[in-house]
Specification:
The complex is a heterodimer of chains A (about 375) and B (about 500). By secondary structure, chain A is an all-alpha fold. Chain A has helices at about 10-35, 40-50, 55-80, 90-105, 110-140, 145-170, 190-195, 210-225, 230-240, 240-245, 250-265, 270-275, 290-300, 305-325, 330-350, 355-370. Chain B folds into three domains: about 5-80 and about 160-240, P-loop containing nucleotide triphosphate hydrolases (Rossmann fold), CATH 3.40.50.300; about 95-150, no CATH class; about 255-500, P-loop containing nucleotide triphosphate hydrolases (Rossmann fold, 3-Layer(aba) Sandwich). Classes of the chains: A mainly alpha (about 375), B alpha/beta (about 500). The interface of A and B includes residues 5, 232 and 242 of A.
């Protein structure tokens, strides 16, 4: 009989098992590094130093973490309602348009803290708007949201390039990007936060979006586990027939869940667009939407888990970039392989060690009860 | 010299963590007999059979097949030892044919052709020998449940099973299908096969077994020759105390009509008419029973009344007001409670904790939270009260619902729907897969609803249940109401109506 139904205590499910998966991912990555003739321990040391060694490194790590928290939350919210939103990438891209329009409109007139709430709303509205059509098609026509959101990623990419090249481009410039926002349209860096820990941020773009991401994590937790809507979403996600029995409207719940998911993805744009480059550029999402799927999977769709797994992926991104710089043998592609291994072991092979763990745990628990 | 018994279990012991599922079990099953194993849900029957079939390994103890000690590591070794299992939930590939399913895992070589013709011949022989007629080229999903089960039996026989284990085989069958199954089992026995029948239905035990063993809380408490025992004795052995098998109730005092269904027609997604021009009334203070073989439109009728399924035409009136078109949430607000047929798919979200299920469908009521948020303290307190009142075990609102036994899961649903104090209650299969103790309890609650002058509509495929609870009985066949009877009508009369013969 399968061991999947045997309950394990939370500290094993959410502590020991993920760590074990991570350790195996690093072990295999070590073998890969070793096979190309580099010292895996040296590489690991460089990766960790590159991600956490100095204030600037930490700043970059947390900058990436911020983006991944947003997209991870986006995927998780849809997932709780039984929807697999692959479109966070495109929703974040279009969300950037919302943030940029607010910044461009207001940066001449008001300070950043006035712009910020409007930018948050703008980014969320545009991200949600981009999720609406797939949501509506799923709810009313049964078109699978996985397919439609993938398609909408491509449409978003095309649309944004068109807008940047033909509409927003600064006359006389070659780069397909908007003008640089004034300070009134930028989100300030969190150097004071780093200073509290005696560290210097340097040029790292770690900014106020991080705090917005933490607030959103709390709000998502409140939504999923404490609100009536979250209860309905979870019911629908686990058992559509029980939801129908309980009178939970399918279409409405699907559409709302996707709008929230798209909104969270859209907010991701605040971080790179207003917090780092201070302008809207092509391809600024850079795969963060897809990483969000891995982050959500690894974080068990729980905001706290998402924060930790976003941090892990932030470390891999920043440390990996540093590592490929220090060890030219380890190319950028190699780093992607290592990230892939982490996703494979932490996400896709989630249940690999579970049966063994269940047996060990049962023996242990059996001994304890036998000793009474 | 007497031949070796087909199965001997000696001192089987199995624990899961702190749960001691099987305690020192001894069992001897004679060759060529039908041996019943009976016990409430959670008594350890399924664990014991899983050990015999190699899903679990016993912590201690010995298994002897035909007098030889064997170690059954997995289902392969079980099959090699001549043990075949027919699961409660069929293990068939729905879009394969009967022949393909029977061959699955025993194809005999890399190329199919030779195996197919061999299997077809063998299947013909088995069918002829045991009267298991099934078209070998029929696709599984198009067969009725009873025939699907026959395919499961054929699968086991094809693999050379001498011992057949059937786990709750009649749970999904109509009375007629169950009778047919019993005839097949008797033929199998007469041909020398040994049959282990796991069930919690006493009637089946009395009807076809030669011997019966009773399990309670992980222990084998007694083995009797079926001819020398009674239903009352077995029930008492199972539950550990005397149980009331008949429901006591007073005279009905029906009041005004509360629920009225007029010329209701319901078509399913494929456009097939499931409910055909059905009309009836349910009054305050009465229980109207709907009898019928499963799949004759009762499920669709219930879903239409509960607002889950849109009727194609006709009217549903509550207190004289038309309600067709309202959704289940709105119907709950006007006092319609619904205990659904299938608690696993409708009544409960099995992955939820108990307290979360205790408000399913009522979670938007102000007492469970104001504004957008739920008041978890209020919900848990409410769940605890229901747990105490309905004796739901274990009494832990934070336990995952899937970890409750069938009877306790059903009590969670019953408590939720009845404690709301509705005006009307519609119930589908209130005691399917529920142990005797809980059946008694749930029947009591349903009668209490009647005595509190509520209107109750009861759908059940258990004719005994319909007859003992209802004040009036209507019979459905092929989507139509074929007649109305009183509970005093004979089983024969009702049976004929259910078969569409009247």
């Amino acid at each position: 009989m399968s061991t999947a139904s045997v309950p394990l205590p939370n500290w094993i499910s959410y502590g020991v098992l993920p760590l074990l998966n991570l350790a195996v991912a690093f072990f295999i990555s070590g073998l890969v590094v070793w096979s190309i003739g580099e010292n895996p321990f040296e590489a690991l040391k460089l990766l960790i130093e590159g991600a956490l060694g100095r204030g600037e490194a930490i700043g970059f790590t947390l900058f990436y973490t911020t983006s991944f928290i947003f997209t991870g939350l986006s995927v998780a919210v849809a997932f709780h309602a039984g929807l697999f939103n692959i479109g966070s990438e495109g929703q974040a891209y279009v969300g950037g348009l919302g943030a940029a329009l607010v910044a461009l409109a207001l940066d001449h007139y008001v300070p950043w803290y006035v712009t910020m709430p409007f930018a948050v709303i703008g980014a969320a509205l545009f991200g949600a708007g981009w999720a609406f059509i797939p949501a509506w098609l799923q709810a009313k026509r049964g078109s699978h949201v996985v397919i439609t959101t993938i398609m909408f990623n491509f449409i978003a990419a095309g649309l944004m390039v068109y807008l940047l090249v033909n509409v927003f481009i600064v006359p006389g410039k070659m780069a397909p990007e908007t003008r640089t926002f004034l300070p009134g349209g930028q989100l300030p860096k969190l150097d004071w936060l780093m200073a509290l820990f005696g560290m210097k941020l340097g040029p790292a773009p770690f900014n106020v979006s991080f705090i917005i991401a933490l607030v959103m994590s709390y709000l998502v937790w409140l939504l999923i586990w404490r609100s009536k809507l979250g209860y309905e979403m979870r019911t629908l996600g686990i058992s559509p027939s029980a939801a129908a029995y309980a009178g939970i409207p399918y279409s409405r719940t699907v559409i709302i869940a996707m709008l929230i998911s798209g909104g969270l993805a859209g907010m991701m744009a605040l971080n790179p667009v207003m917090g780092a480059s201070a302008r809207l550029q092509v391809e600024f999402v850079a795969g963060a939407g897809f990483v969000g799927i891995a982050v959500s999977l690894m974080g068990r769709s729980h905001p706290l888990g998402i924060i930790f797994s976003a941090l892990l992926f932030g470390i891999l991104y920043q440390g990996g970039a540093d590592l490929s710089f220090e060890m030219p043998n380890i190319t950028r592609e190699m780093i992607v392989v290592i990230q892939g291994l982490v996703i494979l072991f932490a996400g896709a092979l989630e249940y690999m060690f579970r049966p063994a763990m269940v047996r060990i745990y049962q023996q242990f628990a059996g001994q304890k009860s036998g000793g009474k | 010299m007497t031949p070796h018994p087909a199965i001997e279990l000696a001192g089987i012991d199995k624990s899961f963590g702190a749960v001691h599922a099987n305690k020192n079990i001894n069992l001897t099953v004679a060759k060529g007999s039908i041996h019943g194993i009976i016990g409430e849900n959670g008594a350890g029957k399924s664990t014991l059979m899983s050990i015999l079939y190699g899903f679990y390994q016993a912590d201690r103890g010995e298994i002897r097949i035909d007098g030889k000690a064997v170690t059954i590591r997995d289902s392969q070794t079980a099959i090699a030892s001549g043990i075949g299992m027919v699961h409660q939930h069929f293990m068939l590939v729905e879009n394969f044919t009967v022949l393909e399913n029977v061959m699955l895992g025993a194809e005999g070589g890399q190329l199919l052709a030779k195996g197919v013709s061999g299997a077809r011949k063998e299947l013909k022989r088995l069918e002829a020998e045991y009267g298991l007629d099934v078209d070998p080229d029929a696709v599984i999903e198009e067969l009725p449940v009873g025939k699907q089960q026959r395919v499961e039996i054929l699968k086991a026989l094809y693999r050379g099973a001498e011992i057949l284990i059937l786990d709750e085989p009649t749970g999904v069958l109509t009375p007629a299908e169950a009778d047919h199954l019993f005839r097949i089992l008797k033929v199998l026995r007469d041909q020398g096969k040994t049959i282990l029948l796991i069930t919690h239905k006493l009637r089946e035990i009395m009807a076809i077994t030669d011997e019966v063993s009773v399990m309670r809380r992980g222990e084998m408490v007694a083995t009797r020759r079926t001819a020398e025992t009674t239903v009352e004795e077995l029930a008492e052995l199972m539950v550990g105390r005397r149980v009331l098998l008949r429901v006591e109730k007073g005279e009905a005092q029906p009041g005004k009509v509360l629920l009225s269904v007029k010329n209701l027609t319901v078509k399913d997604g494929r456009g097939v008419t499931m409910v055909d021009n059905v009309s009836f009334d349910v009054r305050e203070g009465e229980i109207l029973g709907i009898a019928g073989v499963a799949g004759n439109g009762q499920s669709e009728l219930l879903e239409a009344i509960a607002g889950i399924r849109k009727p194609t035409s006709g009217e549903i009136l509550i207190d004289g007001q038309p309600v067709a078109g309202l959704d289940p949430a709105q119907l709950r607000q006007i006092g319609l409670a619904h205990i659904p047929e299938d608690r696993h798919h409708m009544g409960l979200v099995l992955k939820f904790e108990e307290y979360e299920n205790s408000v399913l469908g009522y979670h938007r009521e102000p007492r469970y939270g104001r504004g957008a948020l739920l008041d978890l303290d209020a919900i848990r307190k409410d769940a605890e009260e229901k747990i105490a009142k309905y004796d739901i075990r274990p009494p832990n609102p934070r336990l995952k619902t899937a970890n409750f036994s069938g009877g306790n899961q059903q009590k969670i649903v019953v408590a939720r729907e009845i404690e709301r104090d509705p005006k009307m209650l519609i119930i589908g299969q209130p005691t399917r897969g529920v142990d005797i103790g809980a059946i008694e309890f749930i029947h009591r609650r349903i009668i209490e609803m009647r005595e509190a002058q509520k209107a109750v509509l009861l759908v059940s495929v258990e004719l005994d249940e319909i007859r003992s609870l209802s004040d009036r009985i209507i019979v459905m066949f092929a989507g139509k109401v074929v007649g109305e009877e009183t509970p005093d009508a004979g089983e024969q009369t009702l049976g004929l109506m259910m078969a569409g013969a009247v």
